[in-house]
Amino acid sequence: MGKTIRDVATLAGVSTATVSRALAQGTKGVAEGTRTRVLKAAESLEYRTNFIARSLKTKSTMTVAFIVPELANNFFMDVAEGMGEKLITDGYTMLLASSGNSTEVEKRRITMLADRGVDGMVVIPAGSRGDHLQAIADRGVPVVLVDRLAEGAHVDAIASDNEKGAFDLTRALLDDGYRRIAFVGGDITVSTARERLSGFARALAEAGIVPEPEWICLGGMEVQDGYRRMKTVLESPNPPEAMVAVNLLVHLGMERYLLGTRVQAVIAGFDTSEYTPFLPACRYIAVQNAVEMGRSACAKIIEGITEKKSGSFPQETYGGRVTRLPVTIIRHEEEKNGTKSL
Amino acid sequence: MGKTIRDVATLAGVSTATVSRALAQGTKGVAEGTRTRVLKAAESLEYRTNFIARSLKTKSTMTVAFIVPELANNFFMDVAEGMGEKLITDGYTMLLASSGNSTEVEKRRITMLADRGVDGMVVIPAGSRGDHLQAIADRGVPVVLVDRLAEGAHVDAIASDNEKGAFDLTRALLDDGYRRIAFVGGDITVSTARERLSGFARALAEAGIVPEPEWICLGGMEVQDGYRRMKTVLESPNPPEAMVAVNLLVHLGMERYLLGTRVQAVIAGFDTSEYTPFLPACRYIAVQNAVEMGRSACAKIIEGITEKKSGSFPQETYGGRVTRLPVTIIRHEEEKNGTKSL
DNA sequence: CTGTTAGCGCCTTCAA
DNA sequence: TTGAAGGCGCTAACAG
Questions:
Q1: B273/A278 CB distance under 8 A
Q2: Which end of chain A is more exposed for a tag (fewer CB within 10 A), N or C?
């Protein structure tokens, strides 16, 4: 059995209260001499403070949960790295959990996590509804959304400027002379998909272009969705010559479809990866700063936790402010050439 | 403030002990009538059991930590998904943490996690040494390694049969008539790299082939390492015509290099991803079953935790048994065609 | 089957 | 500056 604060106390010849103070508060309210004596005793006993016991008393676990739709997704994990690093700096531990793209699972996870006493939760919602997230917030656990928004959750959020990103992407294609442009993929229950579609539509509208109805080919955010939609859109009576992909996975599926045909097409999409230089049809990419999103989310949640601890929380409850991070458009060639720098 | 077991007790008109029994053990040792009464009371109060308090008493957090070298790595995350799903089924919560490819950070994380009271730890070691892992195991926390082994950690492990995988991969190239084959990339401090090199060497030896020294081009496991090594090996006086890549990232870097040249080469490597169909030089792939590795690791760690709880642990302490999972070789064409199934 | 009684290991007023 | 004492919320004997 591990040593307790009591063992340290007896060895150091002081009370448990003193040990607690010397270990937790540092030099605060403890004579320098006693403090070093306690520290030495703790060291020689290989004493480790029991965080469970501390948490029971302090009501704080110094833990933040991050719930993502899926783990095997580089974009989400980049956000996670950004968050994790900053959290650790501030003495927090990050608890990463997957909702498996299901709002139901997400709901179970967050209640479980709340019961486990996490100090705060950052979540990339699986679906469009966020009532369960609001419920958690109402229970007094600070919640922050990242990347996607959710209906019914009046909490702060960090997201990319998806509308402008899609607008710029479409504009770039228009500037290259393309007029017949499609929008492929996108689960309309997901806020990012809606925002991107909206930016796409605005760019066309401003250019005075009316797209064929078949060119708005929504549905799904995964690789196979991109594959299927691409097939549909290309087999339509009046196929487009260029397209905007709702995200990287869909983009990938589209390229996969192209791989099996002789069709020439140009794609503009969101997000890069080590692999994008190999995608033949890719022309433009809208790059989100995933790591920065993670950092911002971390800052926000820590802010929320701190406010809550200091009691100045109630008036903040009606949060719902969303911070938008800029998106950068790059030409695919730049990236291919970037290869030289390896 | 959240309701406590006491509130439920008073409302239901029973003692806290009874509430505890009704809630935790289910129907065990509690009259059906009382049980439903307690449940109803708990429900109407929106009572949530406080896991912190429970853990303090039971010495169990029902939590397993999984430490990986990096989060933004699909292979690791596939392992994580495999683990997570099974863990949840058994009532555990998974705590995912990154060591940032540093043994030092890994050490800090695991001690922190141990202090936080995790019931067990599954780790993909960042480096070759595992003394710190052994230290944790000695503190009584079950530890299981996955994917990679570590010197000095006498704990159970789950890994792929890397030696055979590399052997088969090399054999496949030999069967295709290639004789001038190189081995590219690989940090020799990482067990998987060593094992794969060893399988490669055996295949050549059995075929009576003596490779040029420059064809064994070790160093690194990342994209840029593959890029650099590929350059080196191709610029050598007597370049090879085919190569085995130590892992997917290195493989990727190699293809990136090829992209900028007119060199024809054939590559065989480990692991697939949604992107591998786009890699032009890729001929063979050794597929590891990441999800299954996760499941096995999960089974092992739960076994360890259970044994420990039931006290039958001591004699198991000198674990160190490694379970090898098979690796499947596939032709790249099969994968490209698999595209049809999307 | 149920209630009483002790803590788990730590923190935190309140006095000294 | 330090110590004594009383819990945090829950579980686990041990009686009844």
A1: no
A2: N
Provide mean pLDDT across the span A239-266.
Answer: 94
Interatomic CA–C1' length for residue A56 and nucleotide D16, angstroms: 32
Q: Do residues A244 and A184 touch, judged by C-beta distance below 8 A?
A: yes
The whole-angstrom distance between B115's CA and the closest CA on chain A is: 6
Facing A256 at nearest CB: one of B73, B259, B277 = B277
Q: CA–C1' span, A115 to D10, in Å? A: 14
Residues A279/B278, Cβ–Cβ less than 8 Å:
yes
Select from A61, A72, A114 the Cβ nearest to the Cβ of B81: A72
* pTM for this model (two decimals): 0.93
Query: Is B274 in Cβ contact with A273 (below 8 Å)?
Result: no
Are residue A16 and residue A125 in the same domain, yes or no?
A: no
Tell me: do B181 and B282 sit in the same domain.
yes
Q: Are residues A176 and A281 in the same domain?
A: yes
Spell out the residues 6+ positions from residue A36 whose beta carbon is closer than 8 angstroms to its own.
none
The nearest alpha carbon in chain B to A70 belongs to B81
Supply the range of the domain harboring residue A23: 5-49
Q: Are residues B298 and B216 in the same domain?
A: no
Give the rounded percent of residues in chain A with a pLDDT score beyond 70: 94
Q: What is the pLDDT of residues B108-144, one digit of tens each?
A: 999 999 999 999 999 999 999 999 999 999 999 999 9
Same-domain pairing of A219 and A150:
no
Burial of A213 (0-12, 13-18, 19+ CB in 10 A): exposed
Q: Is the pLDDT of residue B1 over 80?
A: no
Per the structure, the count of domains in chain A is 3
**Is A342 within a domain?**
no
A33: nt with nearest C1' to CA: D1
Residues A316 and A189 in one domain: no
Give strand C nucleotides closer than 7 A to any protein Cβ.
1-13
Judgement on whether residues A87 and A143 belong to the same structural domain of the protein: yes
Tokens of A266: 């140009």
Residue B54 in any domain: the answer is no
pLDDT at B311 over 80: no
Gap between the Cα atoms of A111 and A18, Å rounded:
37
CA distance A96 to chain B (A): 5
Q: Which residues of chain A from 209 to 228 reach within 8 Å of chain B, CB to CB? A: 223-224, 227-228
Asked if the model's pLDDT at residue B26 lies above 80, the reply is: no
User: Looking at CA atoms only, how far is residue B75 from chain A in angstroms?
Assistant: 8
Q: Is A161 helix (H, G, I), strand (E, B) or coil?
A: coil
> What mean pLDDT is predicted for residues A54-83?
96
